[in-house]
Design a protein that fits this description.
- The chain is α+β, with helices and mostly antiparallel strands.
- It has one domain: FAD/NAD(P)-binding domain (3-Layer(bba) Sandwich), CATH 3.50.50.60.
- The chain is built from 8 helices and 20 strands.
- An 8-stranded mixed beta sheet has the order 6-7-5-15-16-17-14-18, sandwiched between helices. A 6-stranded mixed beta sheet has the order 9-2-1-13-20-19, covered by helices on one side.
- Strand 11 and strand 12 form a beta hairpin.
- Helix 1 crosses helix 8.
- It is globular and about 60 Å long.
- It starts with a strand and ends in a 28-residue tail after the last helix.
- The structure holds flavin-adenine dinucleotide.
- The site of flavin-adenine dinucleotide has 38 residues, from helix 1, strand 2, strand 3, strand 14 and strand 18.
Length: 375
C-alpha cells in the first residue's frame, strides 16, 4: 500500500486526505491545531461558490463540477453544506470581466442569464443599480458553510482510515539538499512515499514560495426579516471588490471586501476587524441596498489570504515525491473536492499539474479573484 503524509487539515489538505484514503493510500494528516480551527482560511463561516472567472474556463469548469461534489458530500454527511442561493454579478462596464464571464459560461453550457439592472429589484428586497450596465445571474452558484464543511471533510477522512496527527510539522532536508519524503513532528520523523504540504498561509514560513499573506476582515450585518429569507442571493460587485450574501444560519447578511488587506501573520496576528473595514462595508451597503445603510454588525471574523502575484495556485514538486499545494489566492475553497481528485492524480503520477501552477516567475494579475479594484 502506498503511503502519503498530508500536512495541513484545512479544506485542501482534508479533501486530499479523504480522496487518497478512499483510493487505497495509507494517509497521515498532520495538523498543528484541529480541523476547522479559527485561524485557518477554511474556517470562515461561509465561502462563495461561483463559476464566473472572466475568460478562464479551467477554474469555471472545476467550480461547476465542484457544485455536484459538494451536494454529494452534503448528502453523505446528512446535512446541507452547500446553500444554492444563486449569485448576482453587478457589472459596471458593458464589456468587462462579467461580459467575458458570460461568454465563458455560455461556451461551457453553465446556466446563467444576463439581466437588466432594473431586474435587481426582483432578487433583492431593495436594490439600486443606476451605475450598472447589466446583471449576470448564476442560478446554481451559492454559499458553502465553510467551517462546517471542513470539519465534516476531515471527519470523513478519519472515518476512511486517515491517521490524524496533531503537531507542527517541519520539512526534513532542504537548503543545498533535496527535501526528504518525511516530516518532523515534535522531534519524531515520519516517512512516506509522498509528502504534500497543504499549509495555507503558513506555507511561506516553510518554503520559498511567491505568496504574500494579508489580513481580511469579514463582516455580517443584522438586517430586517425580508433579507433573511433563504432565497436572498449571493452577490459580487467585481469593480468595487465587494461581495456578500443573504443571512445563512442567522449569522447576518455578509458584506465584505475582496481587496487585499495589510500584511499579516496567520498564527499570532490580531484577530479583530478594523473600524475602517466596517465603515467601508456600510458605505457600500448604503449605496447598493439603501435600506441597509447603518445596519449594525452582527458577526465578524478575521481571516487571511495567501496570495500569489497572478492569483494562480501553486502545485509543484520541490523534490522527488515532495509536493507543495498552496497560494489559493482567496478563491480555493469551492474547488476543494474536485481539486482533491486532480491532486490525487498528480500525487499518483497519473498526470502532471498544469504549467500555470508551477513555481515559475509570474506576472501580476487579479482576474481570477472577485476583486477588480479596491473600495
Ligand atoms: C476572507 C476570505 C474569503 C474567502 N472567500 C472565498 C470564497 O468566497 N470562495 C472560495 O472558493 N474561496 C474563498 N476563500 C479562500 C478559501 O478560504 C481558501 O482557498 C481555502 O480555505 C484554503 O484552504 P487551505 O486548506 O489551503 O488553507 P487553510 O484552511 O488555511 O489550512 C491550512 C492548514 O495548515 C495547517 N498548517 C500550516 N502549517 C502547518 C504545519 N507546519 N504543521 C501542521 N499544520 C500546519 C494550518 O494550521 C491550517 O489548518 C476566502 C478566503 C478568505 C480568507
Amino acid at each position: 500500500m502506498k503511503s502519503v503524509i498530508v500536512v495541513g487539515a484545512g479544506i485542501w489538505g482534508s479533501s486530499l486526505a479523504l480522496r487518497l484514503a478512499e483510493t487505497g493510500w495509507r494517509v497521515t494528516l498532520v495538523e498543528q491545531h484541529t480541523p476547522g480551527h479559527v485561524r485557518q482560511a477554511s474556517a470562515g463561516e461561509t465561502r462563495l461558490l461561483r463559476c464566473s472567472h472572466g475568460e478562464d474556463d479551467w477554474y469555471a469548469s472545476m467550480a461547476f463540477n465542484a457544485r455536484d461534489a459538494w451536494r454529494e458530500l452534503g448528502e453523505r454527511a446528512g446535512e446541507e453544506l452547500y446553500h444554492e442561493a444563486g449569485m448576482m454579478w453587478f457589472a459596471v462596464r458593458p464589456d468587462g470581466w462579467e461580459q467575458a464571464s458570460a461568454r465563458t459560461l455560455a461556451t461551457l453550457g453553465i446556466p446563467h442569464q444576463v439581466l437588466d439592472p432594473a431586474d435587481g429589484g426582483r432578487y433583492f428586497p431593495d436594490f439600486r443599480g443606476d451605475d450598472l450596465s447589466f446583471l449576470l445571474w448564476e442560478p446554481q452558484a451559492g454559499v458553502l458553510r465553510a467551517r462546517r464543511a471542513t470539519q465534516v471533510t476531515a471527519g470523513l477522512a478519519v472515518a476512511a482510515g486517515v491517521s490524524l496527527v496533531r503537531g507542527r510539522a517541519v520539512p526534513v532536508g532542504g537548503g543545498a539538499e533535496p527535501y526528504e519524503r518525511a516530516v518532523e513532528v515534535d522531534g519524531e520523523v515520519l516517512r512516506a512515499d509522498r509528502v504534500v504540504w497543504a499549509c495555507g498561509a503558513w506555507l511561506p514560513q516553510l518554503f520559498d514560495v511567491p505568496v504574500s499573506v494579508t489580513k481580511q476582515d469579514t463582516l455580517h450585518f443584522a438586517v430586517p426579516p425580508a433579507w433573511t429569507t433563504p432565497g436572498t442571493p449571493a452577490w459580487v460587485d467585481y469593480a468595487a471588490s465587494a461581495y456578500g450574501h443573504g443571512d445563512v444560519d442567522g449569522v447576518g447578511m455578509k458584506a465584505t471586501s475582496d481587496a487585499e488587506g495589510e500584511p499579516y501573520e496567520p498564527e499570532n496576528g490580531v484577530r479583530q476587524v478594523d473600524p475602517g473595514s466596517v465603515e467601508r462595508a456600510r458605505a457600500y451597503l448604503g449605496r447598493r441596498f439603501p435600506s441597509l445603510a447603518g445596519a449594525p454588525v452582527l458577526f465578524s471574523q478575521v481571516c487571511q489570504y495567501a496570495l500569489t502575484p497572478d492569483a494562480e495556485w501553486i502545485i509543484d514538486e520541490v523534490s522527488p515525491g515532495v509536493w507543495l499545494m498552496g497560494g489559493d489566492s482567496g478563491h480555493g475553497f469551492k474547488h476543494a473536492p474536485v481539486l482533491a481528485g486532480y491532486m490525487a492524480g498528480i500525487v499518483s503520477g497519473e498526470q502532471e499539474p498544469e504549467a500555470r501552477f508551477w513555481l515559475a516567475e509570474r506576472s501580476p494579475s487579479r482576474g481570477l479573484r472577485t476583486s477588480g479594484e479596491s473600495w
